[in-house]
Structures are given as structure tokens and as C-alpha cells.
Amino acid sequence: MHLLTANFLLTLTIRIAIGLMIAVDYTVGNALLTEWLPKGEDSKRQSHLLIYWTIGFIIAYLVGSNLSGFGAYTWQVILATGAVPALITAIFRSVFPLPASPSWLASQGKVKRANKVIKKHLGRKWGIPRKFLKRNKPKKDISWGILFSKQYLRRTLVGGIFYACQAFAFFGISIFLPILFRRNGCY
Questions:
Q1: What are the Cα distances from residue 41, in Å, to 20, 44, 154?
Q2: What is the pLDDT of residues 39-90, one digit of tens each?
Q3: Domain range for residue 88?
Q4: Are 93 and 107 in the same domain?
Q5: Domain co-membership, 116 together with 172
Q6: Which helix (H) or strand (E) covers residue 170, if one does?
């Protein structure tokens, strides 16, 4: 969409939407990773995730810094290049889909389906923990507003602030590193 607009508000809206999607991937990806990996292996893989994020950021910086030749549209092309890895990932995930989260399935009352997923991917000796075997009926009328209700507001704020402090600092400072290095004569 960046190729099709030069409107400031639309560009800002697109960037915020992309940022929210990245935030969801950043948090949900970690949770899904730790759910599927055995103890001891999970922390190592989480470290890898952070390394991959950093490598992606460095590659994005290098591509953005060296991309030219599009005249007044160069900034739009730079912003649109993010679609390339997104498309590759979408195709890869279509060919090799991730299994559903067994704990989520069980929390929705789909214990048999959760056990099938576990047995298919981990083997027959594994299964859903006993705490999920109680058949809780899934709540059907849950909305986004519940995150800001009295019951969950504190948890929502703590999680959101923790994520914001981590991500904003990491990406916010990293964006300006080249300028800081240049001003201090590092390169």
C-alpha cells in the first residue's frame, strides 16, 4: 500500500497497523514457541528469535540505506520492501502451516482435538495436562473491551507497558544509531 499513497495520514495509519501486527507476532510467536519446545530448548530458541529480529533489522537498514534510483518515489519503495519478506513468509506458512496451539484448543473445550495435535507432532506418550481436562465451556461473548475492564486493566497495562518499554527502546534507539555513529565519527 505504500507504493500507492503519499498521504501522510494514510502512511501513518499503515505504519501503525504494521507495528501492531509485528507486536502481535512478537508476543504470540514467543508464546507458541515455548508451548511446543521441550524445557531447556525453549530459552535457547527464544534467544534465536531475538537474534533473527536483530538480523532482520540490520538487513532492513542496509537495504533502505542503499536503495536508490526511484526519484521522488524512493521513500515509498523503501517502505514497501517490507512486503517481500512478508510474502515469502506467507507462502512458506501456507506450505508448512503451524499446528494449532493445544492449550488454546483445550481452553476452548476441544480437548480431543488438542490431544490429536499433540500426538501427531510429539508422539503418543504426550497429552494435554490434567488442568485442561475439566470441560470448561468457552465464553462466546468475549470482546476486546474485556482487556480494559476492571478485572484485566492492570494486567493489560503491565503487559503493554513492558512490551512498549522493550520494543520502543530497542527499535527506537536502533533507528537513530547510524546518525549517532556518523556524528561521533565511528563511520
A1: 28, 5, 31
A2: 777 778 878 887 887 888 788 888 888 888 899 888 888 888 888 988 998 8
A3: 1-98
A4: no
A5: no
A6: helix 153-183
Distant-in-sequence, close-in-space partners of 91: CB < 8 Å, separation ≥ 6: none
Q: How confident is the model at residue 149 (pLDDT cuts 50, 70, 90)?
A: very high
Indicate whether 18 and 59 sit together in one domain: yes
Q: Flag whether 143 is in a domain.
A: no
Angle of helix 8-36 versus helix 41-66 axis, rounded to 10: 160
Q: Is there a single domain that holds both residue 87 and residue 10?
A: yes
Nearest CA-CA partner of 131 in 153, 111, 146 = 111
Go through the chain and tell me how many residues it has. Answer: 187
Q: DSSP secondary-structure letter at 37?
A: S
Per-residue DSSP letter, 146: G
Looking at the structure, tell me whether residues 51 and 116 fall in a common domain: no
Neighbours of 102 (CB within 10 A): 26
pLDDT above 70 coverage of the chain, percent: 90
From residue 4, alpha-carbon distances to 32, 80, 101 in Å are: 35, 10, 37
* Amino acid identity, position 187: Y
Pick from 102, 87, 85: which is nearest to 32 by CA? 102
The total of structural domains in the chain comes to 3
Contact 105, 117 (CB under 8 A): yes
28 Cβ contact list (under 8 Å, min separation 6):
none
Per the structure block, which three cell numbers stand in for 124? 503418543
